[in-house]
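Batch manifest, entry 17 of 40.
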Amino acid sequence: MPVKKPYFGFGRNIFFTGLTSFLTDTSSKMVYSVMPMFLLSLGASKTTLSLIEGIAESTAALVKTLAGFRSDKTGKNKPLMLIGYMLTAIVTPFYAWVLHPSQVLYLRFIERFGKGMRTAPRDSLIAGSAVDGRMGRSFGFHKAMDNAGAIAGPLIAYLLLRAFPSDFHIIFLISAVPAILGVLTIILFIKEARKPQESLYKKFSLRDFPTRYYVLLAIIFLFTLGNSTDALLIVKANEVGVKLAYIPLVYLVFNAVSVIFSIPMGALSDKLGRERLLVFGYFIYAIVYFGFGYTSHVQWIIALFALYGIYSSSTDSVQKAMVSDYLDKNKRGTGLGIYNAMLGITLLPASIIAGLLYDKVNSSVPFYFGACTAVLSGILMIVFYHSNKRNPEKIRK
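Output type: structure tokens
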């Protein structure tokens, strides 16, 4: 049940779920903004770097579907959210004692396992707490808070690198603090959005979801195949000439732009339709990735990271809102779990393809590949949009 008292224009659950993501993302992006350089300092190759990200995401992807179904079956989202965020808080400081790239893989797997447990129940809680046709705006707020943490994290990492040059360990240790605060926020402020027992989703079947839901997932799958880990963007920025200490600030530019536009883009999708925003976002992504493949100038890299923030704000939260539009309320956890699992599983081949192209061909080809898949996905989304107009049905829940 949505809570009536507003928090800056949002319900209690939506606001404090956003705050939890802000704190957790502050922690994870402190780590993530320096992780590529840390791995390279341990002797990892670009392929190894991409492989670690791909394996960690994909191996834990199944957890997202299982956690989503579990939340629908029990009618409870908070317990799985709590466990998932606690795993991140516990694992984070252990990066300070890593001596080999394989150890990063183990820690990333545990951390991503936790993310797999919390993602679908959290998204289901947001969808169930959104009111008055504000699904896009609610997911947009969550995305804005998520990326606000992704601003704070790299900024703190930058300040620590300036104070302690090339000392990654201090960053990993301090990053545990906001992660712990995120866990406390869940315990103290988030309320369970309970569902009537008779409406709970007891038995999973792929036939319970509409055809258009699967068509949408297929288009997103194609796009994600060219959307490998952001770590390669960071590596590319460093190779072009962005100094190590300034890498977190470049990543901060991307997240700052995403924060500014996430809520407006989410609200715009409520009014204009999700498909139009996704087409726009996919084409912006194609421009950004083509630019990363083509340019060798630092100023253009910074501009492309800013444009990348436009892509993120018009795509990530809008995709979740659109997926939720196609789902019955009692199946949202499961449906969002399948969606998130598909993203995680696809990241493995996407990262392997990008890493091999980067190492074996040249540093431009993986970005050109991503641009091509984005353009094709945008074209398919246009076809999907017109198909929906010709065959209208009630998809908004």
